[in-house]
Design a protein that fits this description.
alpha/beta; Rossmann fold; 2 domains; nine-stranded mixed β-sheet; 12 helices; binds nicotinamide-adenine-dinucleotide
Length: 381
Amino acid sequence: MNPRRVFIKKVSLGAGNLMLASSVFSFISCDDKGKAYEENNKKTENMIPEEKKLGIALVGLGDYSENQLAPALKETKYCQLKGIVTGTPSKVDKWKKDYNIPDSNVYSYENFESIKDNKDIDIVYIVLPNALHAEYTIKAAKAGKHVICEKPMAVSVKECEEMIKACKEANRMLAIGYRVHYDPFHKEMMRLGNDKIHGAITSIKAENGFKLSDNAWRAKKELAGGGPLMDLGIYCVQGAIYTMGQNPIAVTAKEGPKTEKEKFKTVEQSISWTLEFPGGVKAECVTSYHDKYDLLRADAEKGWFELAPAYDYSGKKGKTHEGKMDFPDVYEQVFQMDDFAQNVMKNTPSKVPGEMGLRDVKILMAIYEAAKSGKRITLDL
Ligand code: NAD
């Protein structure tokens, strides 16, 4: 059995207890942290009856939906998988069986808009190639559904603005699938950086890359909007910002060489960039579809702190100049979706809203502009 699954069972806790859990983490030992999670978990078990959980429909049944989000929805306490939207009829039977989904909650892309009449579905989660995020987010909002949209929010600033507008007009909530905001290691980076625990940050390094194994949509500009920057580099942009606790004011960038010219015909193979923050602190970042990187590091006046690996679903490791960070592996997507479900139930703002997705897409576009022009691009965020 996957060891992560075993531990996840122990550590899944209601989003309502996240604050408690994260504050508990700050001053107790590792063993006790596991126990604290278990205790919190017990308290939230059966907190809300099945029929009161919000219904989520996943749009796009690819790798992320199948292997991360749908299994997470078996562990969520405030929402559950109630519907699917797919263009591949051969997938339907298995999903219906695995998740107990009735025929009436199965949609194709052609009849997706009729989801507006389905009272089982409260939230639509867009898990499609990036260039389709805007179209389906807007359709979902117009159908009266709250929306979670995967990262990157869209492939242009204009699309992001239109998505926010459509959700506002329909009085629906919009959040981006920024899962690491729900991870204790990343929350610790935020705490150490924002509260200046080791003094003010003097520099940041953020690196994320893997070897793209095939020539799928991720390497096609018309579907992905760009290369690894859109897919992986966005984690570096996010990491630098939430560790600093500030938005950057300017960017410079340089595209890397293309050693696989055929594969990366329309997108970059790798790109490095520098984010400048107010006061002159810089974040040096790199992303690649060819080389492996996985780091978020901050150097500060009185020490340093880092995650490596930083962005994987599990197995993150954290260190400071004082020693190891001790946090459990959590199922980030469980917390992420439960938090949004609670936002909808209580009408409270998401901590990863559409506006954050828009900010990040503005930065990604500025990075491309800086790489193309060779100029320093100032950011107006
Ligand atoms: P995938 O290729 O595995 O799945 C994409 C799905 O979209 C497939 O089911 C495919 O059939 C469907 N699709 C519909 N129209 C399509 C079209 N015109 N071309 C290609 N596919 C089409 O991709 P994925 O890894 O599941 O990624 C989907 C989204 O989720 C992306 O936006 C990605 O950035 C995001 N994602 C986020 C995370 C995260 O950790 N937050 C992780 C992986 C993926």
